[in-house]
Write a structure and sequence with these properties.
The chain is globular, with a radius of gyration of 19 Å. Strand 29 and strand 30 form a beta hairpin. By secondary structure, the protein is mainly beta. The chain has two helices and 38 strands. The two termini are 31 Å apart. The longest helix has 12 residues. Strands 2, 3, 5, 7, 9, 10, 12, 13 and 15 form a nine-stranded parallel sheet that branches. The protein has an eight-stranded mixed sheet with strand order 1-4-6-8-11-14-16-17. It is 6% helix and 33% strand. Keywords: Acyltransferase, Lipid A biosynthesis, Lipid biosynthesis, Lipid metabolism, Repeat, Transferase. Belongs to the transferase hexapeptide repeat family. This is DapH/DapD/GlmU-related protein.
């Protein structure tokens, strides 16, 4: 951590990478030979190799930009890449483009295009209010201040001890939480919850300094979060009793309004019912309600409500990026 950028724990950046000012890189990401402009954001567990990324670009959790020395990736300024987007080697993405969650980008994307799917296709052009470009700069000051005050912070693994977490969240007293999980969240719920290693959970309500009244994570009795689950709950996430989240499931309870150039943040709560099974590698993007007893097949991208006791595959499958 310095007074310009914030680099969270478990992130690696090689000596050939260069970062601009006011850059925020979240936990578990890996950068190799990346040139990044000012005011950029990189979410959890991103993999970026041989890529040039323009200023004010925002990359959500799980993005993979897989350039090579022979075929680097070029991302212009003010680009938004949604959660678990994959960009293939040699691709160029134009300024202001928006790439929907789960997309696989295999060919160049024009400026201000909106693309979705695997492979990605253009569905619209942005018609934006020119209200300025996004920047994490103001949030970074709050992140640094939280760490300096000794509060749980993804800048200091020691601050997120299981004992300390349970002291702050009394509902979690009976939970089985791995020492290798990273949790900076307001937790509520039932008993006997299991949270495995390599999980990342964030999100608090306004009562605990969050940005939404709905923020935080509620987990019902007997629920299980397998290895590598990521929950971004600034907009609120609830998980019902005896629901199981498979390995590397990602839940995102927020969105961005791309009708404004600044990409303002919006809450997008995710509600999962009881006795649901969320398959390995699935991506859930709010606002979203999943009914009791629903089954989500592995590697699905789910962006629409799911009825109770139904089996769904999501809008696209992420099978080609499973590891």
């Amino acid at each position: 951590m310095d007074d310009i950028n914030v680099i969270e724990v478990s992130t690696t950046i090689d000596s050939l990478s260069e970062l601009g000012r006011h850059v925020w890189i979240r936990a578990g990401s890996r950068l190799q030979n990346v040139q990044m402009g000012d005011d950029c954001f990189v979410g959890f567990k991103c993999v970026l190799t041989f890529a040039a990324i323009g200023k004010s670009s925002m990359l959500a959790t799980g993005v993979q930009c897989l350039g090579t020395a022979e075929s680097p990736i070029h991302i212009a300024e003010n680009v938004w890449l949604g959660a678990k987007v994959t960009v293939s080697a040699g691709v160029s993405i134009g300024a202001g483009a928006v790439v929907a969650a789960g997309a696989l980008v295999t060919s160049d994307v024009p400026a201000d295009a909106i693309v979705v799917g695997r492979p990605a296709r253009i569905i619209a052009q942005r018609n934006v209010v020119e209200d300025g470009t996004p920047s994490p700069e103001q949030v970074l000051a709050k992140v640094r201040d939280r760490a300096l005050r000794g509060l749980p912070s993804l800048l200091d693994r020691a601050s997120m001890s299981v004992a300390g977490l349970k002291a702050l969240n009394t509902d979690a007293q009976t939970w089985d939480i791995s020492d290798e999980a990273l949790i900076d969240a307001e937790l509520r719920g039932g008993a006997s919850v299991e949270i495995a290693r390599d999980c990342i959970l964030i999100g608090r309500s306004q009562r605990q300094g969050g940005i939404s009244q709905l923020g935080g994570i509620e987990i019902g009795t007997g629920a299980i979060l397998a290895e590598g689950v990521v929950i971004e709950a600034a907009g609120g996430v609830s998980i019902g009793d005896f629901t199981e989240l498979g390995a590397n499931v990602t839940i995102v309870a927020s969105t961005h309004d791309h009708s404004f150039r600044s990409l303002p943040w919006e809450e997008a709560p995710v509600r999962i019912g009881s006795r649901c099974v969320i398959g390995e590698g699935t991506l859930l993007v709010g606002p979203l309600n999943i009914g009791d007893g629903a089954v989500i097949k592995p590697y699905s991208v789910v962006i629409r409500d799911v009825l109770e006791n139904t089996v769904v595959n999501g809008v696209v499958q992420l099978m080609e990026i499973q590891e």
